[in-house]
Structures are given as structure tokens and as C-alpha cells.
Design goal:
With 143 residues, the chain is an alpha+beta fold. It has a domain at 3-84: Folate-binding fold (2-Layer Sandwich), CATH 3.30.2270. It contains 2 helices and 6 strands, in the order βββαβββα. Strands 3-4-5-6 form a 4-stranded antiparallel beta sheet, with no helix packed on it. Strands 1-2 form a two-stranded antiparallel ribbon. The chain is globular, with a radius of gyration of 23 Å. The chain binds zinc ion.
Length: 143
Amino acid sequence: MLLIRCPYCKEDRPELEFRHAGQAHIARPSNIAEISDEAFEEYFFIRGNPKGLYFERWRHIHGCARFFNAARDTVSDKFVATYKAGEKKPALGTPRAAPAGAPAVKRGTAKVAGSASKRNAATRRAPVANAPAKPARGRARKK
Ligand SMILES: [Zn+2]
């Protein structure tokens, strides 16, 4: 079970006690009635979706019920840090950085051992040759 540290309760608690609350550090424009539609769209709808370190808000809904911020690695799903709402982003390195002296590994070049991965690759390869063609989705128009 994923454990999340609440910075107010100062405890590692199960993920089930928390609720995700979106990207952190979104600053509301002070003159929101005067900004352009594009600027409003950027503020209101557009959110980051990084691969790696991501700063987000969480709420300890079944605990102290307070909002806090967290830095989470979106690849490993590990929480790098949690801190109280209103505090600045902690200075964090890239969580996925290889330790010094480790050989660099390119993604997709690692060889996968075992027959299970080969079997999966084979089943993914092509549809069955004599399978009937799938009907088109949606309503078919009669001519
Ligand atoms: Zn709490």
C-alpha cells in the first residue's frame, strides 16, 4: 500500500486517507476579469503532465482534512517530499537521476529476459488471418 506523509499530522498514512487535488503552485491572476480568453484558458484548464517530478496538491480527507503539497515522481509513483500549503517548492534534484558512476541506460534498449514477454509480443503481432472483419462502430447508414 502506498504511504503518504501528511506534513501536518507528521505521520505516514495509507493512500486511502488522501484525495488528489490537482497541480500545485497555480497562481490566480490578480486581474482575472481583465485577462484575455487565452490567458484565462491557460490559468484555468491547462495543467502540466510531466514524466518525472510533479508538484501537486493533496488533501488528508480522512485525517486532518488539510490541504498540502507533494512532489511526486510520476514514473515510479513515489512521493519525494510533502510540505505544507503555502510553503515554497522544496529544492529537489531529479528523482530518477542515476547515481554517480552508474552506467547510462537508454530507454527501450534493455533486453527483457523470459518467455512471457516473447509470448506477449507474439499475441500482439497481428490479428487472426481468417477472422471476420469487425463491423463499423456507430450507426450504419442504409442506402
Ligand atoms: Zn493530516
